[in-house]
Design brief:
Elements: H1 2-18, H2 24-27, E1 31-36, E2 40-42, E3 50-52, H3 54-70, E4 80-83, E5 86-92, E6 98-104, H4 113-128, E7 138-142, E8 146-148, H5 150-162, E9 166-176, H6 180-203, E10 213-217, H7 218-221, H8 224-230, H9 237-243, H10 247-257, E11 261-273, H11 278-301, H12 303-308, H13 314-327, H14 331-345
Parallel strand pairs: 1-6, 9-11
Antiparallel strand pairs: 2-3, 4-5, 5-6, 7-10, 8-11, 9-10
Helix pairs in contact: 1-3, 8-10, 9-11, 11-13
């Protein structure tokens, strides 16, 4: 979380310099919301009393450390208030911007990333932003291990402002880490962004806005066809793969079906920590690969409404079908099938 907090502190400082001598509140609203899964644990004294887990505690310690480094006046009192989903704490950056820490209790609300996305749709947008401001309100979704510069965020906002039809736009992701597995991912990410996403953005729309660094327009997220569908629960294994393991692709497809565009900005660079060891890498790809394949099939299945809304042309559809079919025969996909078969056949063989 330190890399993310350092990025947010840079945004706080940059915005203060940009609007130096003027009223920050009159310039534009800027606030940060951090959502923690399973952040509360039982205190052991009373069943109805919960305390922060070690990750949430470390987050507050790092925030306090960075606040002291950047300024002598800061608010990190850690006073919590009860909420329907757990607890909430409000912190303040050195230059006055607020950070709201949402601490989810697994006994009150579902874990996993999709339900955190539902929280910022139903809480932050529904209750914090008036419907008349949805067109000029944006949500920058980032993961907890992402590092970015304020200029990257501004590049995304600039692209959204210049194209009101865009419902979302993503930046260029660069893996961080050491070792041969990270080297492989550096090449993979480069191909994915410099080739695939650039091509998609030029000839149609980007099919997946990665949740680690993407900017969404509030009007697109609050569209009834997006929000009301995104909050539905899964009822089958295929739906679980698409909705709970491939939530970024699914959200992108819902935005496209409502007639919004999606784009890619190569100038908006962000870095994320990549798996360095085989077990961690395997678990990540076991989640990504099947969900990506099923999501691609979903695009092909729903091709008629997408074509009617001019999301892409027939030639791009043919390109997408070829990419999907070839994806079933890549070394990575075959490796996952073989390894998973071994794990199923021999339950004693598991990754820690």
């Amino acid at each position: 979380m330190r890399t993310l907090l350092e990025s947010l502190f840079r945004c706080d400082s940059e915005r203060a310099l940009r609007y130096k001598g003027s009223n920050l509140d009159a310039a534009a609203d800027f606030e940060v919301h951090v959502i923690f899964d399973d952040a509360l644990v039982s205190s052991g004294c009373r069943r109805d009393h919960s305390i922060l887990n070690e990750f949430a505690e470390n987050f507050l310690k790092v925030f306090s450390t960075l606040s002291r480094r950047d300024a002598t006046v800061y608010d990190a009192s850690g006073r919590s208030e009860a909420t329907p989903y757990g607890q909430r704490q409000k912190l303040r950056f050195p230059h006055g911007h607020t950070l709201t820490l949402h601490l989810k209790d697994k006994n009150k609300i579902r874990n996993k990333k999709r339900w955190s996305q539902v929280m910022y749709m139903c809480y932050i947008l529904d209750h914090r932003v008036h419907s008349s401001n949805h067109d000029n309100t944006y949500i920058l979704a980032v993961d907890g291990d992402v590092s970015f510069q304020p200029a990257s965020m501004l590049h995304l906002v600039s692209n959204m402002e210049s194209n009101p039809d865009l419902g979302g736009i993503c930046g260029r992701i660069q893996p961080m880490g050491k070792g041969p597995i990270v080297w492989f991912q550096i090449i993979e990410y480069a191909i994915s962004h410099w080739l695939y996403k650039t091509t998609e953005s030029m000839v149609g729309n980007v099919f997946c806005l990665p949740g680690c660094f993407s900017l969404y327009r509030a009007r697109a997220l609050m569209n009834d066809g997006v929000k009301d569908t995104f909050v539905t629960q899964t009822k089958s294994g295929a739906e679980y793969l698409i909705r709970d393991q491939g939530e970024d692709r699914w959200l992108t497809s819902l935005i496209l079906k409502q007639g919004f565009g999606t784009g890619y900005c190569a100038d908006a660079l962000a870095s994320t920590h990549a798996p360095e060891h085989l077990p961690e890498f395997y678990r990540q790809r076991r989640r990504w690969t099947p969900s990506s394949f099923y999501s691609n099939l979903l695009y092909i299945k729903d091709v008629k409404p997408l074509l009617q809304r001019n999301c892409f042309g027939i030639w791009f559809l043919i390109y997408h079908i070829i990419i999907t079919l070839c994806g079933a025969f890549t070394p990575g996909f075959i490796f996952l099938v073989v390894i998973q078969g071994v794990l199923v056949a021999n339950k004693a063989v598991v990754f820690p």
